[in-house]
Amino acid sequence: MNRISLSKLGPGLLFAGAAIGVSHLVQSTRAGAEYGWGLVWALLLINLFKYPFFQYGPRYAIATGETLLDGYYKLGKGYLWSYFVLNLGTMFTIQSAVTVVTAGLASKLFGISDDIVVWSVIITIICTALLILGQYQWLDKIIKVIMIILALSSLIAVSIAFSNNNDTLPLSQIFPYETGLLFFIAFLGWMPAPLDISIWHSIWSIEKNKTKTTTLKESLFDFNVGYIATVFLALCFIGLGALVMYGTGTSFSNQGGVFADQLIQLYTSSLGESAYIIIAVAAFTTMLSTTITTLDASPRAMSKTLQLLFKKDHNFYLQWILILALGTCSIFMFLLSEMGQLVQIATVLSFITAPLYAILNFKLVTSKQMPEQHRPKKPLYLLSVLGIIFLTGFSLFYLFSL
Description:
Elements lengths: L2 H5 L3 H9 L2 H14 L4 H25 L3 H8 L1 H34 L5 H49 L14 H11 L7 H15 L4 H30 L10 H16 L4 H34 L7 H18 L4 H27 L12 H24 L1
């Protein structure tokens, strides 16, 4: 990994920052707490089968100089309208979900106030101001610092958990049925992230290229670093849940502040009070990275979508980030009690729409729009086909099991 490659890391880390959030801190921890190591197979399998479709975001962007949204538009205007409606229906819920957990952790880490609404609004305002003032350049720098802190603190936390745990946890793999099925689908839906984040990645890749020209090889290296980090940290959080919480019979709250308190208290009760700051920093940086990247990405995607649909040159980023910030704050004030249900809807929707994004991304990188030398080679092509079959099959299985 040479100096030039390091200087061009960016979109891949932003992808990791967006992915490593609720799926890791909340759902991976819960998976470990409820099933021990039993869902590792699902984590590895879903990351493997989603890999090609996430990778096609930067691959298409660097090869063509266009975002995936440009490609969707060329495939058919209806695809772009579908994306616009789906994103409009979930962006506020997703932003609220990640921010409220961040707020709960901030209240435990910094004190000052226990009011989750106050902390949620403060975090939203600070992140919005940072993005409006610094835009991509500041985001690129901030996320590198956050990801380093996140990786180190998480690794230390897992190491402490292993050294303090004397029990042998079963390694047998399981498939959750009945009441566990909905959690399982939500776990797969946001692991490592919803597939539409590939769109965000393509947008960030174009933004990065405006300041530093990047080759396809460098872009894919950047993506692989970020992707490997998401898988590694997901295993870390499953491990923390399994080593610290498995068998305790604790029921987790859907409320951000209560969940944050439960999470930190359970960890510190097992790992010791000296680990409090490590756990708190690991958890807070996990959620902060997601909060700031999702707050940046959705407005960029909505702005680009409007530009394409209505053939406008105007950048609507400022308008959309303000709309998202205001909408998120409104949910905190009026719908906070419904947050658990809203998140469940968003995660399930992410899962059942995954085959659509997978097929669209695959269709784009194998089409005439893609330079032949940059199209996926046979192994990646075959993995893509298997991935589409897997995602479609699981989506149909879930729908027919309702």
